[in-house]
Amino acid sequence: MSVLPDPGATRAVLIGTSRYDHLEQLPAVSNNLTALAAALAEPFSWGLPPEHCVTLSNPTTAEMTMSAVRAAAEQARDTVLIYFAGHGLVDPENDLYLAMPQSRQQRVETGLSYRWLRQALLNGRAERCVVVLDCCYSGLALGAMGGPVDLADQASVEGTFLLAAAAETRTALAPPGEPFTAFTGELLNALQVGIPHGPELLEFGALYRHMRINLAAKGRPAPQARDRNTGAQLALGRNPAYLPATGSDPPNGKNHALERSWPDPSDIRTVKGFFKALSDVRVTSGLTHQLVSQRSGGRVSASTVSRLLNRESLPRTWQTTAAYLSACGVSDAQVAEWQAAWMRLLAETAIEAAVQDAPRPSQGRSPTLIERLAGRLSRRNGRS
Question: A single GO BP annotation from the record (predicted)?
Answer without folding.
Answer: proteolysis
